Amino acid sequence: MRILVLNGPNLNMLGTREPHIYGATTLADIERAMRDRAAARGVDIDFVQSNHEGVIIDTIQQHQQTIGGIIINPGAFTHYSYAIRDALSAVSVPIIEVHISNVYKREPFRHHSVIAPIATGQIAGLGWRGYLHALDWVLDSTANT
Ligand code: CA2
Questions:
Q1: DSSP code of 26?
Q2: CA 9 to centroid of ligand 1, rounded, Å
Q3: In angstroms, rounded to a whole number, what is the distance separating the alpha carbons of residues 92 and 71?
Q4: Residue 82 catalytic?
Q5: Would the pLDDT of 77 be above 80?
Q6: Is the dihedral of CA 31, 32, 37, 42 positive or negative?
Q7: Which atom of ligand 1 is nearest to the CA of 99?
Q8: What is the structure's pLDDT at 143?
């Protein structure tokens, strides 16, 4: 099985600024941890980051026939991208929305996700480990169904 892990705008900057919000872990660290966990569980991951809405949509469309789940941190697109929501809506695999920070403790504009209503579930505020929990959940739920 392959799992697509998608990260949206500015997440390539993790670990360089705002460590009080996002921690000191870089996106490369997260990718390494996820590849290790995926290998331990016998699955492959495709790990993609883009600052561009269209690239995220193209990636979803290109992978949709070959993946068993999507783990996505859409970054600020979370709060307003109906285009990414529509692309995800066309996919029939589990979709987990991940946020490193607890968006509900932050500015009001971060409290609303246009992705959440079409996602299988959401993890927010558990730091970079939220990605690993999302991966475990997708693999556990797929194994039990
Ligand atoms: O908490 C999250 O994971 C977010 O998806 C992160 C997004 C933010 O717009 C969402 O509301 C919540 C932003 C990521 C920006 O990350 C940076 C990290 C370090 C330096 C600059 C940006």
A1: -
A2: 8
A3: 13
A4: no
A5: yes
A6: positive
A7: 3
A8: 81
Nearest residue to 85 via CA among 47, 113, 45: 113
pTM for this structure?
0.97
Catalytic hit among 99, 104, 112, 133: 99
What mean pLDDT is reported for the chain? 97
For residue 17, how many other CB atoms are within 10 A of its CB? Answer: 10
pLDDT band at residue 144, thresholds of 50, 70 and 90?
A: low
The vertex-14 CA angle with 8 and 18, nearest 5°, equals: 115
Taking the C-alpha atoms of residue 136 and residue 118, their distance in angstroms, rounded to an integer, is 20
Domains defined for the chain, CATH in brackets: 2-143 (3.40.50.9100)
Q: How many residues can be counted in the chain?
A: 145
